[in-house]
């Protein structure tokens, strides 16, 4: 009887599965923005303190890219204005402080060898941090906001630099057996790879008061085979593509698209 019961249950299950249809339907999950932008009608991407390689003008390229993204993916009106040279502005503000005479490039924002009028070049992230005092200058940002009808101001830092790494990497390799049958097996090989690191920090400032509302830091890297010659600008855009969705989610609601399986 027990065997008969099991066979009966199995038959019923098979019958139900034969009559069941599977439907895959698209699902969108809304994600609320990290920052309340309701008080603002405009957004002003003013510029960034940048460091690392000179192969890419990270200040200009970042401003252009973010403005382009916000024109199509934000309800805020994007302010079109000249990109501010924040490296030089931050250095000038530091020179006006009482202790500016002792500031150096290994922790401060001024370089004793720098000539006035020349672009300030920042080579490492520690030196870059010495310029971040500008984001706390409430009067500077408030005055800038008044000039452009009190927008939401977006600024920050961008560090973009070459990077290399050596070590064992697992990759797939095609092999054939004596009968000519193909299969793919994982193999470990020692490789030298070169690429870039991108480390932006976005700072959102209230143009009405000059105070910082929110900030967020990111870090992405990409590596290529040492024999590949990938332009720095191409790598910059490839890395920014990974970061842009998170940046946009700060200012506007985003949707995550997926699927669900329904049985009928």
Descriptive keywords:
alpha/beta; 264 residues
Quick structural summary:
Helices cover 30% and strands 35% of the residues. It is an alpha/beta fold.
- Spans of at least 5 consecutive residues whose pLDDT stays below 50 are 99-113
Largest sheet: 7 strands, mixed
Order of helices and strands: HEEEHEHHHEEEEHE
Number of strands: 9
Average per-residue pLDDT, rounded, comes to: 82
Q: How much helical structure, as a percent, in the residues?
A: 25-40%
Work out the helix count. 6
How many structural domains can be distinguished in the coordinates? 1
Beta-sheet strand percentage?
25-35%
What Rg do the Cα atoms give? 27 Å
How far apart lie the N and C ends? Answer: 32 Å
Overall shape: flat
Structural class of the secondary structure composition?
alpha/beta
Structural account:
This protein has helices at 2-19, 58-73, 86-95, 125-129, 138-147, 232-251, and strands at 22-31, 42-45, 49-52, 77-78, 152-176, 182-206, 212-217, 220-225, 254-263. Strands 2, 3, 4, 5, 6, 7 and 8 form a seven-stranded mixed β-sheet that branches. A two-stranded antiparallel ribbon has the order 1-9. The longest helix has 20 residues, at 232-251. By secondary structure, it is an alpha/beta fold. The model is unreliable at 99-113 (pLDDT under 50). A hairpin with a 5-residue loop joins β5 and β6 (182-206). The protein has one domain. The chain is built from six helices and nine strands, in the order αβββαβαααββββαβ. It is flat.
């Amino acid at each position: 009887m027990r065997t008969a019961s099991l066979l009966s249950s199995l038959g019923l299950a098979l019958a139900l599965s034969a009559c069941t249809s599977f439907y895959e339907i698209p699902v969108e999950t809304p994600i609320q923005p990290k920052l309340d932008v309701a008080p603002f009608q405009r957004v002003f991407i003013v510029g960034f303190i940048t460091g690392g390689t000179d192969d890419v003008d990270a200040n200009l390229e970042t401003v252009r890219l973010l403005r382009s993204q916000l024109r199509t993916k934000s309800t805020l009106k994007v302010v079109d204005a000249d990109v501010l040279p924040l490296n030089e502005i931050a250095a000038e503000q530091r020179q006006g402080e009482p202790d500016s005479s002792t500031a150096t490039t290994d922790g401060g924002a001024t370089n004793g060898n720098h000539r006035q009028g020349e672009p300030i070049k920042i080579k490492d992230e520690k030196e870059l941090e010495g310029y971040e005092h500008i984001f706390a200058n409430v009067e500077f940002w408030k005055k800038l906001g008044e000039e452009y009808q009190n927008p939401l101001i977006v600024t920050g830092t961008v560090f973009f630099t070459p990077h290399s790494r050596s070590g064992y990497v697992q990759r797939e390799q095609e092999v054939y057996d004596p009968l000519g049958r193909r299969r793919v097996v994982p193999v470990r090989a020692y490789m030298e790879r070169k690429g870039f690191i991108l480390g932006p920090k976005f700072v959102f400032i209230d143009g009405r008061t000059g105070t910082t509302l929110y900030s967020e830091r990111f870090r992405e890297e990409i590596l290529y085979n040492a024999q590949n010659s990938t332009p720095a600008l191409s790598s910059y855009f490839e890395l920014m593509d990974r970061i842009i969705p998170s940046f946009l989610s700060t200012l506007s609601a985003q949707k995550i698209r997926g699927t669900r399986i329904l049985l009928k």
